[in-house]
Amino acid sequence: MCVITCNSACESVIALVDDEDIVASFGIAVDATTVEIDQPVTDGDDAIRLTATASNELLADQDPVVRVADADGTDLTAEPETVGAAWGGEFELTESVTAGEKLTVAVQPPGEYDFDAALAPATPTVGESLDLEPAFTFEPESPDVETEVSFDASSTEPSSDVATYSWDFTGNEEIDSDGQEATYTFSEAGEHEVVLSVQFEIDGDTYVETTSQTVHVREGCFIATAACVTPDHAQVETLRSFRNQTLKGNPIGEFAVRAYYATSPPIADWIAQSRRRRKTVRATVVRPAARVASALGLSE
Q1: Which CATH code of 1.10.3470, 2.60.40, 1.20.58, 3.30.420 fits the domain covering 2-117?
Q2: Whether pTM exceeds 0.70
Q3: Which of 83, 97, 148, 195 has its CA 20 to 30 A from that of 118?
Q4: Positive or negative CA dihedral for 115, 116, 119, 120?
Q5: Strand pairing partners for 144?
Q6: For residue 229, what are the contacts with CB-CB under 8 A and spacing of at least 6?
């Protein structure tokens, strides 16, 4: 017996195959095998969001895989995924699909695409492109460590169809924050990839699109930044160059840098709270130190 469930945007979204059919074609006992298209496929997509399940007694001997093909039977599978008891996620294709194209998503025995051996075929039809464009900006563009960075996804289009915004700041594929605007403070210098996932709700269907940008986080010059307000101030850049070119690379300099990082953040916070403190520190500490570094040829 085969049961197929459809909706307005996906044709043959779920297919169930019983034990007898699977034993006949696959030679193993399977309780139920399903393929569910989690997001309607649209023009230009190069991946399909789906969930596949396979329950069988001899799964360790013959693991079924997911494969995708076009109407002509051409295999579009970039990398077959082993289902195991269940598999879900973004299934990558070898090429982008076009509107009106009918695809076959199949759970089948290992090997090349074979529709006749498919345990649970689903046949979604590719819809028109919806021009969903998640996007965000952030500032400052090159923050120091322990500096709060503001993220804004208001440039996402179409904003009227957005249901949720989810932010991943740590690269662990978990949600660190939600909402159109978010803030995050990076504790380590280096390149940090920030991923924004936007869920759109359109005509009863759910679409999830992602975008990412790399934030270059610099090692902090906390006191100089607090005094000069911005990490991009010319005198802050001079002192940063002095640290990188002179202090780093020798034991005494490295010790001084570590001690500075450990003690300066609360001092910098205290300086930042008062315009008079910022002005005094800039005039008596930052500016003279930057002039000395420049005179010694220690700035870039």
Answers
A1: 2.60.40
A2: no
A3: 97
A4: positive
A5: 218
A6: 278
